[in-house]
């Protein structure tokens, strides 16, 4: 059970544009981070590491603590299997779900239909369904080398974003460096969530296509995902506060 007791002095306001990635496998660390940031972070991301170790109860607990959950499981399988996985994700209360756009248009359409059907049945609003384009841990060289692709990385991202939009998805997960081309092709209402965000003072880790939080918002990101610069910081509260100050400047 996530019990949130709030006692820190706040200097910045709650901001839905920041999603904090809870990349932990230990419920104790999750509870501590959520408790620490609860006064100014409303969105948290549950990814493969945490979900695999705790199971769906982590989503239910965060929702029970009135937090919004981006369930980042990046489904990629045959359409019927992904449709079923998305149905389960909607049923446990995820507010945003993602699937790999490279799984194909039929897979994305089936996933979208499934999200609509389950939401209707449960009488809840449909969570945002996003397509993952190309992981932000790849750069031009690794993308073209690993996939023997003649397309450039940004052409591939734009192509997958257009496919996701055609399949009825609400938006995509993409690097901040590709926001401009996605906006051009998919328009202003398409939802763009960007990981690969690094405040100037943080290390890159395995991320290769990065921008600062302010640059990502200025480039047109609707929401940014930040993990290690907050969760591995000596003072997570202060690291979050600095990011929020920066995006609100
Ligand atoms: O620690 P860091 O800020 O790099 O965390 C970024 C988070 O966003 C990780 O949980 C990672 O799985 C996720 N992510 C990503 N690139 C994508 C999609 C999700 O880095 N294309």
Explain how this protein is built.
- The chain has 249 residues and is an alpha/beta fold.
- The chain has a single domain (18-247), classed as TIM Barrel, CATH 3.20.20.
- The protein has helices spanning 27-37, 48-54, 57-64, 79-91, 105-122, 140-147, 153-166, 179-186, 213-219, 228-231, 236-248; strands at residues 18-21, 43-47, 68-75, 96-100, 128-132, 171-173, 191-194, 223-226.
- Helix 4 packs parallel to helix 5 and helix 7 runs parallel beside helix 8 (179-186).
- The longest helix is centred in the middle third of the chain and has 18 residues, at 105-122.
- The termini are far apart.
What distinguishing features does this structure have?
249 residues, alpha/beta, TIM Barrel, 8-stranded parallel β-barrel, 11 helices, 8 strands, globular, binds cytidine-5'-monophosphate
- Contiguous low-pLDDT stretches (5 residues minimum) are none
Bound molecules: cytidine-5'-monophosphate
Gyration radius (Cα, Å) is 18 Å
Beta fraction: 15-25%
* Global mean pLDDT: 93
Number of domains: 1
Binned, the helix content reads 40-55%
CATH class: Alpha Beta
Distance between the termini: 36 Å
Number of distinct beta strands: 8
Q: What does the largest sheet look like? A: 8 strands, parallel, barrel
**What's the CATH superfamily, by name?**
Aldolase class I
Number of helix segments? 11
Order of helix and strand elements from N to C terminus: EHEHHEHEHEHHEHEHEHH
Strand order of the largest sheet: 1-2-3-4-5-6-7-8
């Amino acid at each position: 059970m996530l019990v949130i007791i709030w006692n820190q002095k706040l200097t910045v306001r709650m901001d839905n544009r920041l999603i904090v990635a809870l990349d932990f496998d230990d419920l104790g660390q999750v509870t501590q981070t959520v408790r620490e940031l609860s006064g100014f972070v409303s969105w948290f991301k549950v990814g493969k590491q945490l979900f695999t170790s705790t199971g769906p109860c982590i989503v239910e607990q965060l929702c029970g603590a009135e937090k919004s959950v981006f369930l980042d499981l990046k489904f990629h399988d045959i359409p019927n299997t992904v449709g079923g996985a998305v149905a389960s994700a909607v049923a446990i209360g995820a507010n945003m779900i993602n699937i790999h756009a490279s799984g194909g248009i039929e897979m994305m359409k089936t996933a979208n239909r499934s999200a609509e059907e389950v939401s209707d049945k449960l009488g809840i609003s449909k969570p945002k369904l996003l397509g993952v384009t190309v992981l932000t841990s790849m750069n031009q060289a690794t993308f073209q080398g690993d996939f023997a692709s003649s397309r450039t990385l940004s052409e591939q991202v734009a192509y997958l974003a257009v496919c996701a939009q055609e399949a009825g998805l609400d938006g995509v997960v993409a690097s901040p460096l590709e926001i401009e081309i996605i906006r051009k092709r998919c328009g202003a209402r398409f939802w763009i969530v960007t990981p690969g965000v690094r405040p100037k003072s943080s290390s890159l880790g395995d991320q290769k296509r990065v921008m600062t939080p302010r640059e990502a918002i200025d480039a047109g990101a609707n929401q940014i995902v930040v993990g290690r610069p907050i969760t591995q910081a000596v003072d997570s509260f202060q690291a979050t506060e600095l990011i929020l100050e920066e995006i609100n400047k």
